[in-house]
Write a structure and sequence with these properties.
Number of helices of chain A: 5
CATH topology of the largest domain in chain A: Nuclear Transport Factor 2, Chain: A
Shape of chain B: globular
CATH class of the largest domain in chain A: Alpha Beta
Mean pLDDT of chain B: 89
Structural class of chain B: mainly beta
Largest sheet of chain A: 9 strands, antiparallel
Distance between the termini of chain B: 37 Å
Distance between the termini of chain A: 31 Å
Structural class of chain A: mainly beta
Largest sheet of chain B: 28 strands, antiparallel
Oligomer: heterodimer
Strand content of chain A: 35-45%
Chain lengths: ~425, ~550
């Protein structure tokens, strides 16, 4: 299966390369018949159409203080005649440097407090031009340093997050986001479903500009929310990290504990910032239950679950138990010395005696189906619980502070008696199933 | 009494025994003397918070008078053909929620280059490739690259992978596991359209804080390439491998793991269309501690954006990924996330109208989990007479089998805003109305949130004043037994003033922010009220 997938991927790639030679513009659906094509166009290495109608460039990030426009154009017939650029709304035009293969470059030195309105005109030798209006771009120079730029971007992200505006929030996320844009987009929507009255503040610990236009950011955050699941307020604080890509600053990478998208922390965050303080952070379970966990992670969200049958030959000397973590049935011979996390001794079809191992605590949830137990109880556990019957559930707090739960689905049999058990186990230490 | 407390707090500034503070002072003096281009920015603010009510523990504010000072200094210049720049900064606060440290160094970096050789010291962020190195170190790096001669581009880096400088001093409040790192990269531009890079990154953990801290000794070696076979098409790939030794907790033997990560990406960007394809496969045992990768993942991704006309654009996307690549888990979990959206401008021939509609599907299944979520959104922006309006409607179905989640969510909000000039004032009134309804089919309950707020912005450009005030409420009504309704009423205001006397410094800003939040719950012991006033000054020169 693995080889099939690999072969498939390689085949698709080879096919893609073949397609490249067959028609160089396979991705320009229906538009490759233009007389003049702009093959690519960048402003300071940012794709021209990615930056929207207005772009602010930052003095600190400019190479030699210049704004560079680079691109490449081609014609279906004939040759390129020239490329001209205006920075003052078509009042004056300047020639761009153009090479034989259609690549062109133009640069200008922007001044503070001045607006530049750019258009790019590409002409072939027959006098035909591109659609100039499509190249309109307003450029502004800011003296703001990187720290101010990052603060402004984080402020906007937090504002959009607090206002539960996913589109505005995602406009600050890079297409190359390591946790995948689609995951983050879904995750913040789930956050908005789970939280009300989000309040979030931060202070910067460190900002480091790096190669390839990347900026590393470490922050301390301080947060409060109201859970829409239980209506209760929650608050936490901690330290986390981001990587931003510059152009307009867009987030490229986020680590646990997350301040955005924590409902899918497993997929959104890449890496974890280890806190020295041991603070617990807000986390969200699959059912939107809010918890406080180390690093705000829910660990592997794959809660173990399934159905097993436990047999009782003799309710005192020969019955069976279960170990949640190993999903393993144990053979029990002594109710006072249970080998599994619990042992279930069926005395009658209306009475199954619950025995637990030393160190395990249990709480009975009479008549509650397992599907309705979406999080383990916070308190109320004991070292024993009343016997149960079909339809009853039990929640367990294990000695390693993880939680499990079972439902007795049915009790049957006359000689050996059988209990059909449905179980769930959360291995990550949270109470969320 | 209050005066004494303030005096004690401010004495935190006098902790010059800290090594970094001396260094900071030294660098500040040196930079002032020699830097040709020196910028200093400083923001000082005082905040007074008052929290009352039985549920005040739920507030995220710290009671009392607190200060925060953030200092940043950058400089640049030239010495004998070398360009140099540096930056350093510090933070001081007595609010534990801002920082556990009252005084901390935030930045310390120096860089010098002759455009062929570059040395960086202090905060060092060399971004090699996704799988190998993409985080900041406290250390140093050296880079050799002669662009004119097209020499190999060589970088070596060494340092400690700490998020903050206080970690380096290993003080009680901020110490964490020590992670030493070393990396090297060699990149060569084979042709103007093709480069290849080889990376080696080694990290070694030491000095546990808790007995349960895992320690890694990790080596990642990777090869990355980028090729532009034709204009507008970019192909990228990276393959990485790791040798990892892991001691899960104190006393545990080191486990040895090896893994791999492969990625290939094609981006087509031309004319009105931009398309990208990506495939990634990362083994369960692949570990990169300084790069970015999610172990145990096979992923395929496609995106296509197409601008059909000046007024119509379409975007589509598809993401699939799964785990359990080596059948090491009890079951495999698959995720499918397709989406499509259309944006139409000048709808109904209206100059300022923009409508967008999108549909996103979120499918996850594996083992006993099976979730299908459908997310639909509609947004419309327009101008009606003197009002700008923005309206968003959303409908989402969440369904996780069997009987885990079965709910429908409706969101609806609209914002009306306007702008009027009244002599020297610009008035910007706005109204926000929002709502959210969630029906839980399993519990047979319906939860509702209503929110509204009224705002007024007042700008006086001649006086360089901008201000804003907003009042409103947010009400959560829940039906399920044992849960709380909540009502928050709030008022926030902000005032920013750039006085002329501060303009002499280049840029100066005085600001005042205030807020009152009043929270009421069904369980009255959770009720609290918080009042916060912050005033500050930001100067840049």
């Amino acid at each position: 299966m693995k080889n099939i997938r690999l072969n498939l991927a390689v085949s698709v790639f080879i096919l893609m390369l073949t397609a490249v030679h067959a028609d160089a513009k396979w991705w320009i659906f229906g538009q490759s018949n233009d007389e003049i094509n702009i093959n690519y166009l960048y402003l300071n290495k940012i794709a021209y159409d990615e930056s929207g109608p207005q772009i602010t460039v930052y003095k600190e990030t400019l190479q030699d203080g210049l704004v560079y426009i680079t691109g490449k154009a081609s014609t279906r017939k004939g040759k390129l005649g020239g490329v001209r650029v205006t920075t003052n709304n078509k009042e004056t035009w300047e020639e761009a440097k153009i090479s034989e293969n259609g690549a062109f470059e133009y640069s200008f030195k922007p001044e503070l407090n001045k607006d530049y309105i750019l258009f790019i005109e590409i002409m072939d030798t027959a006098g035909k031009t591109n659609d100039i209006e499509l190249t309109r771009k307003e450029v502004k120079l800011s003296e703001q340093n990187i720290m101010a730029l990052i603060r402004e971007t984080l402020d906007k992200m937090i504002e959009a997050y607090k206002n539960e505006d996913p589109a505005r929030f995602m406009s600050h996320v890079s297409e190359d986001f390591t946790g995948d844009e689609a995951n983050l987009d879904r995750a913040i929507r789930r956050d908005f479903n789970a939280f009300d009255n989000i309040d979030l503040r931060y202070t910067l610990n460190n900002i480091t500009s790096g190669a390839k236009g990347m900026v590393y950011v470490s922050i301390n955050f301080n947060r409060s929310v109201i859970s829409t699941k239980d209506g209760k307020p929650y608050t936490d604080k901690g330290m986390t990290e981001f990587i931003f890509q510059l152009g307009p600053a867009r987030v490229y990478n986020m680590k646990n504990p997350l301040i955005f998208g924590l409902s899918d922390a497993e997929n959104v965050a890449v890496g974890t910032v280890k806190s020295s303080s041991g603070e617990l952070n807000i986390s969200l379970s699959e059912t939107n239950a809010v918890g406080l966990t180390a690093d705000g992670t829910t660990g592997d969200s794959s809660v173990l679950s399934g159905t097993v049958t436990l047999t009782t030959v003799n309710p005192f000397t020969n019955f069976q138990g279960f170990i949640f973590a190993d999903e393993e049935i144990t053979n029990e011979t002594d109710g006072g010395n249970i080998m599994g996390d619990f042992g279930l001794a069926i005395e009658t079809l209306a009475m199954a005696v619950m025995n637990v191992r030393a160190g395990v605590q249990v709480k009975k949830r009479a008549g509650t189906p397992l599907s309705q137990i979406t999080s383990a109880d916070e308190s109320g556990y004991g070292t024993w619980a009343d016997s149960g019957q079909a339809g009853d559930s039990y929640v367990f707090k294990l000695s390693n502070n993880t939680y499990g739960a079972i439902e007795i689905v049915s009790l049957n049999g006359a000689g050996p008696r059988y209990a059909s058990i449905r179980y769930k186990y959360q291995p990550n230490g949270t109470r969320n199933f | 009494m209050r005066k004494n407390v303030l005096k004690m707090k401010l004495s935190g500034f006098n902790l010059l025994g800290k090594g970094w503070a001396i260094l900071l002072a030294f660098l500040l003096s040196a930079s002032t003397l020699y830097a040709e281009d020196l910028h200093i920015s400083n923001e000082f603010s005082l905040t007074h918070n008052h929290i009352s009510g039985p549920g005040q523990a739920s507030s995220s504010l710290t009671e009392g008078l607190r200060y925060l000072n953030v200092l940043g200094i950058t400089g640049a210049g030239q010495i004998k053909g070398f360009d140099y720049n540096f930056n350093f900064g510090g933070k001081a606060t007595d609010d534990n929620r801002n920082d556990v440290k009252s005084l901390s160094l935030t930045n310390l970096q120096g860089r010098i280059t002759d455009k062929i050789n570059t040395v960086n010291m202090g905060d060092t962020f060399e971004s090699f490739s996704q799988y190998s190195l993409g985080t900041s170190l406290k250390g140093a790096s050296y880079r050799f690259y002669d662009e004119a001669a097209n020499t190999p581009d060589i970088t070596v880096v060494s340092g400690l992978a700490y998020p903050r400088w206080d970690n380096v001093w290993r003080e009680r409040e901020t110490r964490t596991v020590e992670r030493q790192a070393f990396g090297s990269r060699i990149k060569y531009n084979v042709t103007p359209d093709f480069f290849a890079g080889a990376n080696l990154v080694v990290s070694d953990d030491d000095k546990r804080i808790r007995t349960t801290d895992p320690l890694y000794n990790n080596m990642v070696y990777s090869l990355d390439m980028e090729y532009r076979p034709i204009p507008g098409l970019t192909l990228r790939t990276e393959s990485a491998f790791n040798d990892t030794k892991l001691s899960e907790q104190e006393g545990a033997d080191y486990k040895i793991n090896h893994g791999y990560a492969h990625k290939i990406e094609a981006i087509g960007d031309g004319g009105p269309s931009r398309a990208s394809l990506e495939y990634e496969r990362i083994a369960p045992d692949f570990q990169t501690l300084l790069g970015s990768a999610t172990p145990d993942r096979e992923k395929a991704k496609a995106k296509w954006r197409y601008r059909y006309s000046k007024t119509l654009s379409i975007s589509t996307g598809f993401l699939w990924f799964r785990n359990n690549l080596e059948h090491q888990r009890a079951f495999t979990t698959n995720n499918y996330k397709p989406e499509a959206g259309i944006t139409v401008k000048r709808l109904f021939d209206r100059q300022y109208s923009t409508a967008d509609i999108s549909y996103k599907f979120d499918r996850k299944y594996g083992g006993t989990t099976s979730a299908s979520n459908h997310i639909t959104n509609f947004g419309y922006r327009d101008r009606f007479g003197i009002f700008d309006s923005e309206t968003n409607l959303g409908y989402t179905i969440y369904n996780t089998k069997t009987r885990v989640i079965d709910s429908k969510e409706y969101t609806y909000n609209t914002m009306l805003s306007s702008r009027h000039t009244l002599e020297k004032c610009i008035l910007k009134p706005s109204l926000y109305l929002g709502g959210w309804t969630a029906s839980d089919e399993l519990a047979d309950t319906r939860d509702v949130i209503y929110e509204y707020s009224l705002g007024l912005g007042v700008d006086i450009p001649d006086r360089k004043i901008t201000s804003d005030i907003r009042v409103g409420m947010n009400k959560l009504e829940k039906e399920a037994a044992g849960t709380d309704d909540s009502l928050k009423t709030f008022a926030v205001m902000s005032l920013y003033y750039r006085p002329d006397f501060l303009a002499k410094l280049n840029q100066g800003l005085l600001f005042l922010r205030a807020s009152i939040n009043d929270f009421n719950y069904t369980t009255e012991t959770r009720d609290f009220r918080e009042t916060s006033i912050t005033s500050g000054i930001n100067i840049q020169f």
